[in-house]
Structures are given as C-alpha cells and as structure tokens.
Amino acid sequence: MSLWDLVLQSGPLPRAVMAILAIFSLLSWAVIFSKWAVFSRVRSANRVFLRAFRKAANLDAVAMASEQFRRSPLVTVFDFGYTEVARQMKSRGSVTNPVALERTLQLGMSEELTRLERNMSLLATTATVSPFIGLFGTVWGIIDAFQQLSTAGAASLRAVAPGISEALITTALGLAAAIPAAVFYNMFGTAIKEFGARMEDFMLEFMNMLDRSFE
Questions:
Q1: Cα separations in angstroms, 28 against 116, 134, 148, 163, 196
Q2: Which residues contact 56 (CB under 8 A, 6 or more apart)?
Q3: For residue 143, which phi and psi values (nearest 5 degrees)?
Q4: Which residues fall within 8 angstroms of residue 68, CB to CB, at 6 or more apart?
Q5: CA dist., res. 102 & res. 13, Å (int)
Q6: Any residues with CB less than 8 A from the CB of 128 and at least 6 apart, and which?
Q7: From CA 78, how far away is CA 147, in angstroms rounded?
Q8: 38-63, pLDDT tens digit by residue?
Q9: Which of 143, 123, 176 is nearest to 14 (CA)?
Q10: How many angstroms separate the CA atoms of 58 and 208, rounded?
C-alpha cells in the first residue's frame, strides 16, 4: 500500500494526530519564510543606515534622513536616543543625564529585540512538542494493531504489519515537523543575538556622535 492509502485507512485518533502535526508544520513553515524575509531586509537596512549614520555630521542630520531607513532596528534605537537628547536639551540646554540617555537607548533596543523574537516561541513549541505528539499517535496505533491481532487470532507479521505501518506514520510526521523548526529556531536565534550585539555597538556610536556634536 502507498503512504496515502495508509493515511486514509487510519482511525479517527491517528488522523486527528496527523492533522495537528500538519497544522504545526504549516504554521512553523509560515514563520520560517516570514522570519527569513524579515531578517534579510533587516540586515540590508542596517548596513545602509550605518553607512548614512557614519557619514552624517551630527544627530540632526541623521534624524532628517532616518525615515528612509525605517526597516532597520537601529533606527528605532536612534529615535529613542534622539528623543531623549531633544528632551534634555529643551529642559536644560545640554545633555546632563547620560545615564537616562543610556537607559532610553536600551529601551529602544529591547523593543526591537522583542519585535524580532515575535513568533519564535511557535518554532520552539513545534520542535519540542511535535515528536511527542507523533509518538503518542504511534503508541496508540500499535496498541490498536495488537488488539486487532488478538481479535483475529492470526499471530503473523503479515497480519500486524499494516497496523504498525499506519502507526509509524505519525512519528515520521512529528519528526518532519520538528526537525525544520529546530534547525531554523537555532539559526534565527543566532541572528537575533547578532542583531542585539549590533544594536549595543550602535549605542556606543550614538554616544560618540553626541560627544562630537558638543565639542
């Protein structure tokens, strides 16, 4: 029998398990393609924005040009810092509280990291839970196959093989859902750490430009 024939001959519970695993797989692949596209745009936008930032004479020049780099997380960090600088300049005439400025920059960084980590929990859940859901379907199917064997009274491999084959499909589907989710979860996690390190470096560059602006 073909794989599709085995699926069609499965009982209600194995089919429900397969449907759940199919949903997990589809959702995880949707997240994978979405994150891949977003992270590619983020890397490109970061490179372009950093070039513009390093060529700018002061923070005001960066602020005027920042709208065209809105996809870059560094722009959000810059906006947080620039807003705090403007607030201190308006109230005191200079930047007198660098600690508050640093905390504001960290808030911008935290906001962007939260946005980049969105839906990562779905990949982690798929990678962790799918094999166990598949194993549950397999165990249930094997129990059902041996019950049918005892009822039929034919103790042979030929009698029990179709039932066991049906049961093992759920394990295969569980692994098929879990393996890509685990691989891309680790890959995207590394990318997010890289973006976080880049934002920390940018905070230092922001402070350096601020110092140069008041020299």
A1: 16, 16, 36, 29, 23
A2: 62, 65, 209
A3: -60, -45
A4: none
A5: 55
A6: 178
A7: 66
A8: 999 999 999 999 999 998 888 888 88
A9: 143
A10: 10
Residue pointed to by tokens 């350096």: 208
Cβ atoms of residues 49 and 200 within 8 Å: no
**Which residue shows structure tokens 């109230």?**
91
Q: How far apart are CA 128 and CA 39, in angstroms?
A: 23
Note whether 68 and 48 are within 8 A (CB). no
pLDDT digits (tens, 9 = 90+) for 194-212: 999 999 999 999 998 888 7
- Burial-class residue 55 by CB neighbours within 10 Å (0-12, 13-18, 19+): exposed
In one-letter notation, the amino acid at residue 126 is T
Q: What's the CA gap between 74 and 196, in Å, rounded? A: 10
CB distance 166 to 148 below 8 Å? no
